[in-house]
Amino acid sequence: MNNKIIKYVISDLLRNRTVFFYTLVLLALSLSIFFIEGNVDKSIASLLNLVLFVVPLVSIVFSTIYLYNSEEFIALLVSQPLKRQSIWLSIFVGLATAMAAAFLVGVGLPTLIFAYSLSGITLVIGGLLLSLIFVSIAMWTAVRLRDKSKGIGLAIILWLYFALIFDALLLFLLFQFADYPIEKLMVAVSMLNPIDISRILILLEIDLSAMMGYTGAIFRDFFGTGTGMLITGLVMFLWIALPLLFATRFFKRKDL
Amino acid sequence: MQNLFLYFLLNSVFCLLMVAGTTRAATIHVGKHDNSKSINRAIAQAKPGDTILVHGGHYREETIQITKSLTLIGLENPIIDGQQKHEPVAIKADNITFKGFTVKNSSHSALTDVAGIKVYGVKNVSITDNVLDNNFFGIYLQNVKNCHVENNRLRTYGETERLVGNGVHAWKSDSVTILNNEIIGHRDGIYLEFVTHTHVRKNLSQNNLRYGLHFMFSHDNEYHYNIFRSNGAGVAVMYTQRVRMEHNRFEENWGDAAYGLLLKDITDSYIEHNTFVRNTTGIFMEGSNRTLIEQNSFENNGWAIKIFTSCMDNTLRKNSFIQNTFDVATNSGKLNNTFVENYWDKYEGYDLDKNGIGDVPHHPVSLFSMLIERYPAAMLLFRSFMVTLFDRSEKMIPSLTPENLKDDSPLMKPLPIKTEKLSATGNSEVFRRRKGVEE
Amino acid sequence: MIEIEQLSKKFGKLQALKDINLSLSSGQCISLIGPNGSGKTTLIKSILGMVVPSSGNILFDGKNINKEWAYRNDIGYMPQIGQYPENMRIGQVLDMMRDIRKTPDHLLDNELYEKFELNKMLDKRMRTLSGGTRQKVSACLAFMFDPKVLILDEPTAGLDPLATEILKEKIVYEKQKNKLILITSHVLSDLDELVSQIIYMQDGELVFHKSLEDLKSDTGTDKLSKAIAHIMGHRSIPQIEIIHEQ
């Protein structure tokens, strides 16, 4: 990685109006939730929607657009004496830092101030990881498709998949195999969607797990153990690393 | 209310008669500095109608057998200690008052129900102002009539249900008053089986391992102004007719299988003016008919009400549903219950004629709540975007949720809740003494 | 200096470069010409490592450039349209490039920077710049690090006559320093006085690579444009294509 590129990407993004607006909207929404809702767990539950849907959507779509808009700049960098891998990773670090910072200021700070609790911290960590994961997926989208509109389309479809379609498939699976003890399998399947992992982790923390009955108990048993958390952490890390790895490998051979 | 008044009247007359009949009653003192140092010996010496005043001290006797109609009063908080070997107090005669003692450390037994104070098949016993600490069962009323349990504080510390008995336990009894007691850490706070014409009022039942209040086959009873808080599974009422439950608070019964109030095979009963706050399920009803659930407040529960199989002809009227995750859940679309004039904070209708009643009906059952009753594992998708979308579309075009489960006249504003100061928390004497014990 | 051996590149079904063999040495000033889609830019980008060849090798100073990046320290590249991060100021772009190149200050060539008077607009954001000013920034960057090889893609397009003159002088000056200069341009007359060699490409194939003298004598003309036109005529390609090339 190249510190200079990271620095320039970040300083470019910090002046970006979309990032500024995104931060402001997040901040306004989370502050109003905390002021209107007195109960901390309820606020966290309301923030959950923001973190699970808005953050991934903005992270993936904004990053994709930014990458397409930076195409010529990336080409310029590639013509310079720089390693392609370090260019690409630096851009990722820059983008990820900007999105993470926007989330931290917009949601993280208010949460840590008004809801400094295990559930609040879980929410912030979940949102941070989702920011990184969806920037990483955007890197892959943008590098695979040359056409900007197709790329943005794919980004939105991927977001829809993780936020919506995956859950629909999961529900379908549940209906089909309702007669079998599939709860443990569900733990494994939920690992295939970082949004679901975050959602379940936060739900367990805000003690809605009591409402989740037997399934909740299975999940609590899994996430409650050190091994479970280790596996979860590893899976989230892979969700950041793998799309980035595939994207980087593709970028190294890409014609600009 | 009338019953209660009658009861007090009878009781007073009865006491007067008692006093009249024992004009020559003696008073015996028990204590370190008195002639009698043992309570049992004092009882042996006493004649029916006598009063035994027990002064402060630690009494380690075998079971105190009260076999005559006596008044036992503890002064300066005497302690009767079962040393975990005996049943500390056994009441085996009619017309007994037992007041002002600390009874502790009963034995534990898997075979017999040992209690701190056990009353065996008698009438007119009054147990008041006692502290019961670390007993297997607390106060055990077996086949009694006209008994009065008031202002006692019961606490025990067992970890599992097997090692802990019930707080106030009544079996096959009639006309019992349980008033102003505080029961903590027992198996069931108050347990009633085959008990009739009983009043349970102003008690605080908290942190009990199983139920705060548990009763079965106990008809014509009334429960008013109690607080049931943080018990293993709330309050269970089963196989009972003609129950009145009013002005109680069910709160913080939060856990996997917890609920505020479980109704199983309850008929012709009244549940009114109660408050259900932060329970996993506020009311869980099954096989219950002709019950009027009116003017209760449900706040911040997981499910406010679950109405299950074969609940018929119940009426839910003028209740407030506020901030519950789910308001009503059911596993069948064909239940014939009436929802009318309730306030639902999830109601999205309007009131054009400004009469305080919404112009379009409210369907309180969400699609997702139907779904998880059939596929509990679907709870995995709780609060996911898809589920929100599901519920939204179902709201617009109802197709799967029960069509007849609706409130045709939903209120636009919640009814004001009568905030009456509830029960045991106001019982300052008990609280003062508890402090003393804990220090 | 640069050896290109059997270089081929396919974009999907399109054969952009077909078996190109070239040898470019220092001290040469080469004009790379050919119609639209003839593969000129692909060739340049291959040399820069921006396009990865399907087959064949490119050697820079005898070393294969495949997966290498350090050799680009010796190349100054002026792209056709310079695109920079929109929100950055000119000064920041220059700083960033200096940071990347890590060339010590005293070795920097600031001649174009001064002559184009970029110091007067260091605070201007890139998105506000005209095409010509962008070209000035690009040119300035290409020459700034005193590289051994200069690759200029349509360098004079969009520049005003004064700037064009400054750039041409600079190219002549650099040529004398025994550098290899590779230029694509469609304004042929601009190049006449600079060019020592001509590479002509068409349909991804190298048509010829000749010195200017050879070309003139072969075609019997004394002007480069006429020489080219002569060849075009023989290959029955409408001349208009050359003129419209970008």
Summarize the structure.
Chain A has 256 residues and is mostly helical. Chain A is built from eleven helices and no strands. With 439 residues, chain B is mostly beta strands.
Proportion of residues in helical segments of chain B: 10-25%
Q: Please describe the biggest sheet of chain B, giving its number of strands, its sense, and whether it closes into a barrel.
A: 14 strands, parallel
Average pLDDT taken over every residue of chain A: 89
Low-confidence segments of chain A, given as residue ranges, are: none
Outline of chain B: elongated
Q: What is the arithmetic mean of pLDDT of chain B? A: 85
Instruction: Work out the radius of gyration of chain B.
Output: 25 Å
Q: Based on DSSP secondary structure assignment, what is the total number of beta strands of chain A?
A: 0
Return the structural class of chain B: mainly beta
Determine the N-to-C terminus distance of chain B: 39 Å
- What is the count of DSSP helices of chain B, taking H or I runs of 4+ residues? 5
The coarse silhouette of chain A is globular
Cα gyration radius of chain A (Å): 19 Å
Tally the helices of chain A: 11
Q: Give a quick account of the main beta sheet of chain A: strands, pairing sense, barrel closure.
A: none
Number of domains of chain A: 1
Beta-strand percent range of chain A: under 5%
Share of helical residues of chain A = over 70%
Largest interface: A-B, 35 and 26 residues
Query: What is the chains' assembly state?
Result: heterotrimer
Characterization of this structure:
The complex is a heterotrimer of chains A (256), B (439) and C (246). Chain A is mainly alpha-helical and 256 residues long. Chain A is 84% helix and 0% strand. Chain A has one domain. Chain A has eleven helices and no strands. In chain A, helix 3 (40-69) runs antiparallel to helix 9, helix 6 (118-144) packs across helix 7 (148-176) and helix 6 packs antiparallel against helix 9 (194-205). In chain A, 49% of the residues are buried. The mean pLDDT of chain A is 89. With 439 residues, chain B is mainly beta. Chain B has a 14-stranded parallel beta sheet, with helices on one face. In chain B, strands 3-6-9-12-15-18-21-24-27-30-33-36-39 form a 13-stranded parallel beta sheet, covered by helices on one side. A twelve-stranded parallel beta sheet of chain B has the order 4-7-10-13-16-19-22-25-28-31-34-37. Chain C is an alpha/beta fold and 246 residues long. The two termini of chain C are 27 Å apart. Chain A binds chain B through residues 39, 42, 45, 48-49, 52-53, 163-164, 167-168, 170-171, 174-175, 178, 182-183, 186, 190, 196, 199-200, 203, 207-208, 210-217, 219, and chain B through 254-256, 258, 280, 300, 302-303, 323, 325, 374-389.
